Write a sequence for this structure.
């Protein structure tokens, strides 16, 4: 099994890719998944996280087959409304 | 209840007319109050001219959370019906970005529910906007 | 700005589409937020079936006060535009009684202004409703 | 000159007419106009009054040529919305 890590919006552009598939061994939390994909870069304070499309926190558990996502604050709705 | 993410432009008034026409006999004549909010693409933002906007989203997660928000509103205000349509992709000034509507027996419930729908959508639905300005592109940050 | 008392039935969605289409170039692309309220004739009230309703008004005084309310809202919330259409005469269930709409740069202003328009209209505009029930007619009293 | 007194809705039905034209002599206030049209009947507490299409009070001044109106509380807007 594996864990899929996805990036959106400005983070996607900065990471230079849409997703990374990680071997799930040794990955226990969202923070650990971030470390695997970002190396030395600390988890940005305002970054949002989701596990299987539900909002999650840095210490949320990640299991085999899960989809983890990182993205900047959301800006839906009307244009600056 | 209709919750939709649209890839192409849409006419909010036609959507409302169509949706209301499709309401079942059980709902017809049972609502006295409808509150609607339409968010439209502007041609300016933070002092800059904006030519087009690119709306990105997280497919499936968006729909999942819009549904949740709609169901919460129906439960909290005893609504007759709810509609949410949100645009994604490339958008031009004057085009509709979002449409939310709440049908209720009384106006207080309709207004509060529509406000809840758009406020929660902005807080929780995974959409991101990138503006194309004459001087280049920029991601819109939430205030 | 459009403030109108209508003797015949009207389609709120078509009115909104037409009104927005007529907005001048100066206003186009300048509003990000539109809040709309539609009041619809129900087929029940206070536990009774309602077949038709007769809406009486005080000609000229009605228009005068609707205009005042619209101007107050524009001044208070810096609106781009305002629309008020109110029906009079004989009305059947499911028909639109009132439509108010406020166009603004931001959603808080749009919502608050639309709420103000309908709340003040109900308080100050001289309209009276008479319901036709299976058991006879009755004037609707304000709560 | 004269003063026109108008009635609306349930009051119009109760008065049995839409309007009465009064000779303006001796009429100084809205209350006085009511007395002229209603006789002994006291001004109902919840009745609304207008002079020249502006809301008025029982002691508001009425002048030659004015239009005075009496009507029940207004019930516009959506149906019981």
């Amino acid at each position: 099994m594996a864990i899929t890590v996805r990036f959106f919006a400005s983070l996607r552009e900065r990471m230079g890719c849409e997703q990374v598939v990680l071997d799930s061994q040794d990955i226990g939390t969202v923070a650990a998944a971030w470390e695997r994909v970002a190396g030395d870069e600390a988890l940005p304070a305002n970054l949002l996280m989701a596990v299987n499309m539900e909002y999650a926190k840095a210490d949320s558990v990640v299991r085999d087959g899960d989809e983890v996502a990182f993205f900047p604050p959301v800006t839906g709705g009307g244009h600056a409304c | 209840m209709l919750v939709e993410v649209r890839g192409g432009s849409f006419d909010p008034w036609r959507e409302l007319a169509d949706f209301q026409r499709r309401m079942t006999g059980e709902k017809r004549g049972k609502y006295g109050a409808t509150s609607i909010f339409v968010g439209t693409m502007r041609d300016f933002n933070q002092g800059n001219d904006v030519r087009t906007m690119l709306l990105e989203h997280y497919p499936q997660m968006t729909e999942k959370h819009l549904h949740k928000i709609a169901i919460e509103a129906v439960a909290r205000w005893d609504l007759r019906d709810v509609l949410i349509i949100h645009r994604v992709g490339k958008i031009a000034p004057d085009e509709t970005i979002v449409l939310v509507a709440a049908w209720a027996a009384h106006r207080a419930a309709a207004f509060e529910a529509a406000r809840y729908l758009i406020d929660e959508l902005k807080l929780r639905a995974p959409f991101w906007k990138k503006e194309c300005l004459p001087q280049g592109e920029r991601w819109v940050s939430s205030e």
